[in-house]
């Protein structure tokens, strides 16, 4: 997959549809100290094992896209001799540490880890490094001596969401009240989403209530939204910044339960099928489309290049640099994002094969789909 061409195409898509698109930034930074060991491991052949640790199954992306694509790409890059050793933590940080330790015991060649808790995973990362196993932080920036990091430009995700919400609120936004439904406090990505959004929203709207959502749990999100509605009044809420689609669904459900006549603009992220259908129906204003196939494919390339000692290819895949609270100048790749609205569904999730029109336009959505040109 030609990632550079994909980035260029996404920019063209966004310009053509007037959606908010953000191309790659030079780097993402989280304040921190320390250093990172980025030397290539001893050269291995094609008979390698890539350890893959994913955080949970509630978000459908992990087992629908990330896992199969990484497996496929590792096989392709190793003449079908390489394999993936996979474990899912089910949103449990202690369980993920046990899984990482098992991979160290099993002597996998390299580990891709999407941390449940970026701080607590650090001890496991150190054990892997002590055993000579390179560790690449996948999708979330883990602490500890990681060798590389690949994710989307998370602060820009928040900026895209914030800008979209302001556009939806229209004139006199500064007098309008919004609710912020942020992600999990243990997820470093959530802090970056929030920071990016706050940079756009601060001083431009009235942020009446703001919540961090434990474990990204929609049940918690719905309860918090109900609290916000009781405190502010349903008719006084002009919009909701929701950090992802799961929370967006919970927010919208809470407002419907409380009797809202028309759902105000609600943001999201991940372009989940339910969210795309809500966007078609006009219940959710937007989501952020992140090409998980591109991210997964690039992560597999990075892992194989690292363990096979192909420094030139590895360096080409990690031209960005980021800092974590424990490491500086971590070799990284930050992927681009696109604001998904009803205007560019065809040019994003359908064109990329994430969903078909048939999947989106179920019987209940036929009329709404026709209105936005999906047939």
Q: Can you describe this structure?
A:
With 375 residues, the protein is of the alpha/beta class. It is 42% helix and 17% strand. The protein contains 14 helices and 13 strands. The protein has helices at 3-17, 61-77, 93-105, 122-130, 154-169, 188-201, 218-232, 245-257, 273-281, 292-307, 311-317, 346-350, 357-360, 366-371; strands at residues 21-22, 49-54, 83-88, 110-113, 135-138, 148-152, 177-182, 206-212, 237-242, 287-289, 320-322, 330-335, 337-340. The strands form 3 sheets. Strands 3-2-4-5-6-12-11 form a 7-stranded mixed β-sheet, sandwiched between helices. Strands 1-13-10 form a 3-stranded antiparallel β-sheet, with helices on both faces. Helix 2 (61-77) links the parallel strand 2 and strand 3. Helix 7 packs across helix 8. The chain is globular and about 60 Å long. It starts with a helix and ends with a helix. Mean pLDDT is 89; it is low at 1-41.
